[in-house]
Specification:
The complex is a heterodimer of chains A (175) and B (421). Chain A has 175 residues and is α+β, with helices and mostly antiparallel strands. Chain A has three helices and nine strands, in the order ααβββαββββββ. In chain B, 62% of the residues lie in helices and 1% in strands. Chain B has helices spanning 13-21, 24-33, 47-66, 76-85, 90-117, 126-148, 153-165, 173-181, 188-219, 238-263, 293-301, 305-320, 322-325, 339-357, 363-390, 400-403, and strands at 36-38, 235-237. In chain B, strands 1-2 form a two-stranded antiparallel sheet. Chain B is globular. Classes of the chains: A alpha+beta (175), B mainly alpha (421). Chains A and B meet through loops of A and α7, α8 and α12 of B.
Chain lengths: 175, 421
């Protein structure tokens, strides 16, 4: 009987020692791991204001926001129609065009391919725009349409739409 | 006088003094002097020594480069150019380091081919093989980190593509990627930590190399016949025989690497990396270093992001279990008439994968990559286990000495290695 209770006592001591040791180690490691996450100054949300008055229909510009390229395209009538008439069942990541724009002629996208992070081509007039007249990622061959939606290739998702607002008719604030 | 009672093993009293307090002298004597090497070992057995020497060269040249390098996005590219133009012999240090990395991989690939062909990964050297795969994995990580440091276009976009691989992991992927980068894109925080890790990982590799060597010395080296050492007649001492042989190998290697360092230092470099990193413009073709290209080919051969990433890492992970996938008891492919050819085809296939991994992933290249991918996994998961059961191995020589007496033909021993030990 005395033997038995002694064993239980041993088990308890061993278990509690190991538990406290493990919790302590984890608590010690946490700040080190956490220090690798983005620092406060990096998180501080940058905003970028862009004057879009000089952009002609069919043209695109690239601006930098949070270190990433942001595409702003003033779409032509044809491009808008193309984006609106797509059958949802043809899309890999189905999303209506109206849900991706605030004004039909202005398309604002984060210009980072959702596959492995390359910047797709299609901003310059001489660039290949891919098979769907939007953007084409040269790294691994993803094709995006005139709404920035993935149509063909390895990318899993549509090009992201950043948070933005129109300050007035010719100024967009991103972020 | 304490020295009087201490054993006097060596003529030199300093050695005796050290030996009594730390028996390191006798350890090195045992492991690198009297260590018995199978006498039939060919020059393939010199590549372990070559790899060790290259590792040391990389560490030394890297430390001296670090004295002149600045890990900051605004200054990294210029500091590398300064090393090339202004630092005394900086060009030499950098070309030794960049070409040394490529040659390190050439050597290690030959070392791995040796281990696979002659069955060095089998009982009782499985742990040795696992340590080796760890070293290979760490080498890939280290070379990737190091490739980021010059902060050219390939550095930046290579880092972007590889870190984005982690975002394919469901649920935690994006967070993991951000944690690895320390930013939302590859930025200054990323460059800083990559430099820190690139500096420390080679020392980790060095430590594991120590274990790798210690482990092989426990049961002794394998040999081209793949049979165990049975008597003193089967071996020669490491010193001087193997040391001389390895020295010749090092000399030949020195000539080859010098030829590249001095006459073609950029042969294996990508020209785009001499353009400073630009986060807004992706190069038309992101080309990995050739020594990582086979895995890049596997990544691109799969038309699904998560699938591609899983198979790419799977291609490396599967190496760990090779000792248990192989069901044959015969080590050396010299005595395995069927497996030998599949093994050779595997090497050719790996080379072809590397070749298409550096070309655009479209049309015929994509098709070749897919066929190569199927063979890569088929070799490990189907061919290797099944051949072991159906193949009839040739008769093994009774002993290593017998190899030189035309042994093997009349040997009464069965192919099984079990009783030899």
């Amino acid at each position: 009987m005395a033997e038995n209770s002694n064993n239980k006592r041993r088990d308890f001591l061993q278990l509690s020692t190991v538990t406290i040791g493990a919790v302590g180690t984890a608590a010690f490691i946490w700040p080190f791991l956490k220090s690798m996450n983005p620092a406060e100054d990096t998180i501080a949300l940058g905003t970028t204001e862009v004057d879009v008055s000089q952009i002609e229909e069919g043209q695109s510009i690239t601006v930098k926001w949070r270190g990433k390229p942001v595409f702003i395209r003033k779409r032509t009538k044809d491009e808008i129609d193309e984006a609106k008439t797509v059958n949802m069942s043809d899309l890999k990541d189905p999303e209506e065009d109206v849900d991706r724009v605030k004004k039909d002629e202005w398309l604002v996208l984060v210009g980072v391919c959702t596959h492995l992070g390359c910047v797709p081509l299609g901003q310059k007039l001489t660039d290949s725009k891919g098979e769907y007249n939007g953007w084409y990622c040269p790294c691994h061959g993803s094709h995006y349409d005139t709404s920035g939606r993935i149509r063909k290739g390895p990318a899993p998702e549509n090009l992201a739409v950043p948070p933005y607002s129109f300050l007035n008719d010719t100024t967009i604030k991103i972020g | 006088m304490s020295g009087n009672s201490e054993p006097r093993k060596y003529k030199n009293p300093v050695l005796n003094w050290i030996e009594f307090r730390l028996p390191i002298i006798s350890y090195f004597e045992k492991e690198y002097g009297d260590y018995p090497m199978p006498k039939n070992c060919n020059y393939f057995w010199s590549f372990g020594a070559l790899a060790t020497i290259t590792l040391v060269t990389m560490i030394v040249s890297g430390i001296f480069l670090a004295m002149n390098y600045t890990p900051h996005t605004e200054m990294a590219f210029d500091s590398v150019e300064r090393i090339m133009r202004d630092v005394n012999y900086g060009w030499l240090l950098r070309y030794i380091h960049s070409n040394g990395a490529a040659f390190f991989f050439i050597i290690v690939y030959i070392h791995i081919v040796r281990g696979m062909y002659y069955g060095s990964y089998k009982y009782p050297r499985e742990l040795n093989w696992i340590l080796g795969v760890f070293i290979y994995l760490l080498m890939m990580a280290t070379s990737f980190l190091g490739y980021t440091l010059p902060w050219g276009q390939m550095s930046y976009w290579g880092a972007t593509v590889i870190t984005n691989l982690f975002s394919a992991i469901p649920f935690i992927g994006e967070g993991l990627k951000t944690w690895l980068l320390g930013d939302y894109t590859v930025g200054n925080a990323t460059l800083n930590r990559f430099f820190a890790l690139h500096y420390v990982l080679p020392f980790v590799i060095f430590g594991i190399v120590g274990l790798h060597v210690a482990a092989v010395h426990v049961h002794g080296s394998n040999n081209p016949a793949g049979i165990d050492i049975r008597s003193k007649n089967d071996t020669v001492n490491f010193f001087p025989y193997m040391l001389i042989k390895d020295t010749i190998a090092v000399c030949v290697f020195g000539v080859l690497i010098s030829a590249v360092i001095f006459f073609g230092p950029n042969l294996m470099a990508e020209v785009d990396n001499y353009i400073p990193a630009d986060p807004l413009v992706t190069p038309a073709h992101i080309v990995p270093n050739w020594y990582l290209a086979p895995f890049y080919a596997i990544l691109r051969a799969v038309p699904d992001k998560l699938g591609g990433v899983a198979l790419m890492f799977g291609a490396i992970a599967i190496l760990f279990v090779l000792p248990w996938l192989d069901t044959s008891k015969v080590r050396s492919c010299n005595f395995r008439p069927m497996y030998k050819w599949f093994m050779m085809l595997f090497f050719v296939n790996f080379f072809v994968l590397g070749y298409v991994g550096m070309l655009p992933a479209e049309g015929l290249y994509l098709l070749i990559a897919r066929v190569g991918l199927v063979y890569y996994f088929g070799f490990f998961l189907i061919i290797t286990p099944f051949i072991g059961w159906i193949e009839k191995p040739k008769t093994l020589p009774a002993s290593i000495s017998d190899v030189y007496l035309g042994g093997g033909k009349e040997s009464p021993l069965p192919a099984s290695q079990k009783e030899i030990h």
